[in-house]
Design a protein that fits this description.
single chain, alpha+beta, Aminopeptidase, 25% strand, transferase, acyltransferase activity, transferring groups other than amino-acyl groups, N-acetyltransferase, Acyl_CoA_acyltransferase, GNAT_dom
Length: 205
């Protein structure tokens, strides 16, 4: 019996300890973590998986980024405790979180990982989307939560903008009647941002 719940502030220490256990020392020095610094996680998609006794067995997090100027989710890290690996918990957490992302209106997800593992979830290599160096381009993978969401996108993955204070929020851009959104996106996804991106392996970075 497992329980999947959104990560709460009370889970922070345990989740960080799980990531430290599963990944090599110095994981936060990866270029991907520069995308996350100072940017809030997508809280409703950051999940924990516990067994019936409340022991944390797996965790997954998502961060907002811009991919070729479009709104996207950056998946990771995802980790499963070494004693529970091979039981399908990573796949369970992946599918649950991706369904929540789709229901929440997100159009596209990307990650850096091993294609043979992530293909089972529908991820494919992104040929023209550039993660910051020294990321291996063969490991840059994307998933469409809306049909056509990755079609024609070319450019870098950048850091998401943090919302400006209310008093400084600029007016919404004027959209011409003849200006059509990119396939798989709505008009509010077009706001630009600047920054960079992350890395992970099967069942983690």
């Amino acid at each position: 019996m497992f329980e999947i719940c959104p990560e709460s502030p009370a889970d922070e220490y345990e989740v960080e300890a799980l990531y430290d256990l599963c990944f090599a020392p110095g994981r936060t020095a990866l270029s991907s973590y520069r995308l996350r610094e100072g940017v809030a996680r997508v809280a409703e998609l950051c999940l924990t998986l516990r067994d019936g006794s409340g022991i944390l067995l797996a965790a997954i997090r998502f961060w907002p980024v811009r991919a070729a100027g479009r709104r996207a989710l950056l998946l990771g890290p995802i980790a499963v405790h070494p004693t529970a690996q091979g039981e399908g918990l990573g796949a369970l957490l992946m599918r649950d979180s991706l369904e929540r992302a789709r229901a929440g209106g997100w159009a596209r997800v990307l990650l850096v990982g091993d294609a043979p593992y992530y293909q089972r979830f529908g991820f494919r290599k992104l040929e023209d989307v550039e993660m910051p160096p020294p990321t291996n381009p063969d490991r840059v993978l994307g998933l469409e939560l809306r049909p056509g969401a990755w079609v024609g996108l070319t450019g870098p993955v950048t850091r998401a903008e943090m919302p400006a204070p209310l008093a400084q929020t600029p007016p919404a851009p004027h959209i011409r009647p003849d200006q059509k959104p990119h396939p798989g996106e709505s008009a509010d996804e077009r706001k630009p941002a600047d920054g960079a991106a992350p890395d992970q392996r099967p069942l983690g970075p």
